[in-house]
Amino acid sequence: RNMSSAGPEGRKKMRECDGLIDSLVYYIQGAIADHEPNDKATENCVCILHNLSYQLEMELPESYAQSIYMQRRNISSNDKTPGCFGTRSRKVKEKQQDMPLPEEKSNPRGVESLWHSTLIRIYLSLIAKSTRNYTQEASLGALQNLTAGTGPMPFAVARTVVQKANGLPSIRTMLHVSHPTVKKTAVSLLRNLSRNTSLQSDIAREVLPDLVSILPESVPESDIVCETTASICYTLFNLTQSSSHNARLLLSADGLPKIITISMNDSNMFSKASRAASVLLYSLWSHTDLHSAYKK
């Protein structure tokens, strides 16, 4: 577990080690089958897999990168990196989501297991069944790592989490735990998932009211809660930017007063949370059909 956090070279060596990843997955599967999701060894295994999935899209061996990402050549090299705003950003995202998804192998081995639906379901099972905070956080963190990129693999993982494995209910439960880093990681995962336009209606229906409910009434003092608040605002931004329906959902969940209060924080002009809330407000105002509702 310590060695897996030793940087890019350490991760590369461990991913290449014959049988290591397969053994970790095998052990966790056995623990879940034996109804023992809370033992320390399971926590260690999940933490190792979490670390090995970090920057996986960037660090994939050339052979995998070629087979999985051949489709990316269809995207014009003139397109700029997708940003938060503008039609260019949306067009690039749509192109990416139109690409064929990477095919799954029925019997993955080694590094292939890291993004396979079998392991994704294991993470979701541990999120639902384990009561160890480190196990929950590592499972959420691994999914966060796998959905962090912009290629077909992160979008395929996101689709598996939301639509194929019905993972949103388990993630939603983690929004209401008392442990701050577990909550923060759950929100960060949802922020990644919400970038996928084809999943936004499902995510909004399942978790938008929960996201609003955990927004603080004012800007929090602690850094971790401030970061969580900023992530919630950016997730809501993704969900409402192109959907008047989702913006109305946010309104009916009484989210607007909270967001206004957070955006007007005077104690720290450069607060991440205040800036994110301001970006969200600016986007919400673009739905002109809701102006009268906003004013009320």
UniProtKB/TrEMBL annotation:
Compartment(s) where it occurs, according to its Swiss-Prot or TrEMBL record: Cell junction
Ranges for region Disordered: 79-109
SUPFAM superfamilies assigned: ARM repeat
Top-level taxonomic group: Eukaryota
Annotated signal sequence range: none
GO cellular component: adherens junction; cytoplasm; intercalated disc; nucleus; plasma membrane
Keyword tags: Cell adhesion, Cell junction, Repeat
Bias (Basic and acidic residues): 94-107
InterPro entries recorded: ARM-like, ARM-type_fold, Armadillo, Plakophilin/d_Catenin
Biological processes annotated in GO: cell-cell adhesion; desmosome organization; heart development; intermediate filament bundle assembly; protein localization to plasma membrane
PANTHER family reported for this sequence: PLAKOPHILIN-2, PLAKOPHILLIN-RELATED
Family designation: Belongs to the beta-catenin family.
The protein, known as: PKP2 protein
Organism: Smutsornis africanus (Double-banded courser)
